């Protein structure tokens, strides 16, 4: 494990692949997730000769919970800083859920550093949530029951295939959420006023949208994937037997899509 030092704290990340010749890939998980959700993808890409850095969000995993902001734009700043930390070359960014919004923002802000974006189960616009649901969510993240409740919710988003090592991953999530300062950080991440990204006209990097066919975050996952693809001018890969976490549920599909994206990014470099 490594740490990226930021003005208000540290971001934890793992680095796979020791060579400096392959494409740098930065993997960004979503809220109340741990960087190990990209464990299979990172290992396969490293075996293919790429360098892969998998980071934790602020307040998640082994990152510090000392930050003032926990929104996707702040995460985009961490992504950009990590690319610079690892040499400043053009990187491919793979982001899941909220991490997909951060990847898109990073690509728009620093096209000189981002060669391609892969958006997995992407939230480029906040989901429509009723007042009752918002109130229930605030209760969910406001007490000692938060760790168990969010771990159960995390589990429920894995419609379709159960990933290898899923029990161990759930244990990591539960342990991550037990300290009070981490529960507060995750609650602030969930409640952060994230913007809608509906105009990515300045995006120059090639993009791919990877969406689980069973993703329960969307009434119509295909329709949401098509909308995101229209924003980033990317292609869509629908993943069978998969909910919200394609990187762990169907790493075979994700690795194939990322390798194609890397080839496209290198072709336009």
UniProtKB/TrEMBL annotation:
<feature type="domain" description="AB hydrolase-1">
    <location>
        <begin position="25"/>
        <end position="256"/>
    </location>
</feature>
<dbReference type="InterPro" id="IPR050266">
    <property type="entry name" value="AB_hydrolase_sf"/>
</dbReference>
<dbReference type="GO" id="GO:0016787">
    <property type="term" value="F:hydrolase activity"/>
</dbReference>
<dbReference type="GO" id="GO:0016020">
    <property type="term" value="C:membrane"/>
</dbReference>
<protein>
    <submittedName>
        <fullName>Alpha/beta hydrolase</fullName>
    </submittedName>
</protein>
<dbReference type="InterPro" id="IPR000073">
    <property type="entry name" value="AB_hydrolase_1"/>
</dbReference>
<dbReference type="Pfam" id="PF12697">
    <property type="entry name" value="Abhydrolase_6"/>
</dbReference>
<dbReference type="InterPro" id="IPR029058">
    <property type="entry name" value="AB_hydrolase_fold"/>
</dbReference>
<dbReference type="InterPro" id="IPR000639">
    <property type="entry name" value="Epox_hydrolase-like"/>
</dbReference>
<keyword id="KW-0378">Hydrolase</keyword>
């Amino acid at each position: 494990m490594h740490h990226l030092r930021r003005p208000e704290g540290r971001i934890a990340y793992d680095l796979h692949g020791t060579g400096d010749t392959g494409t740098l890939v930065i993997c960004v998980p979503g809220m109340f997730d741990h960087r190990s959700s990209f464990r299979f993808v990172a290992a396969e890409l490293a075996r293919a000769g790429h360098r892969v850095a998998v980071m934790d969000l602020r307040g998640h995993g082994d990152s510090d919970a000392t930050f003032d902001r926990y929104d996707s734009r702040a995460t985009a700043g961490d992504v950009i800083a990590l690319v610079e930390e690892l040499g400043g070359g053009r990187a491919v960014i793979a982001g899941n859920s909220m991490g997909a919004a951060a990847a898109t923002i990073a690509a728009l802000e620093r096209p000189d550093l981002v060669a391609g974006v892969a958006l997995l189960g992407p939230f480029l616009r906040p989901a429509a949530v009723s007042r009752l649901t918002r109130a229930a969510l605030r209760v969910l993240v406001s007490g000692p029951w938060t760790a168990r409740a969010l771990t159960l919710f995390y589990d429920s988003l894995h419609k379709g295939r159960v990933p290898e090592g899923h029990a161990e991953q759930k244990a990591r999530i539960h342990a991550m959420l037990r300290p009070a300062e981490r529960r507060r950080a995750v609650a602030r991440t969930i409640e952060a006023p994230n913007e809608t990204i509906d105009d990515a006209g300045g995006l120059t990097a090639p993009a791919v949208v990877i969406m689980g066919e069973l993703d329960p975050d969307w009434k119509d996952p295909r329709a949401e994937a098509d909308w995101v693809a229209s924003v980033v001018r990317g292609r869509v890969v629908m993943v069978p037997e998969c909910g919200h976490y394609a990187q762990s549920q169907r790493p075979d599909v994700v690795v194939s899509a990322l390798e194609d994206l890397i080839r496209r990014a290198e072709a336009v470099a």
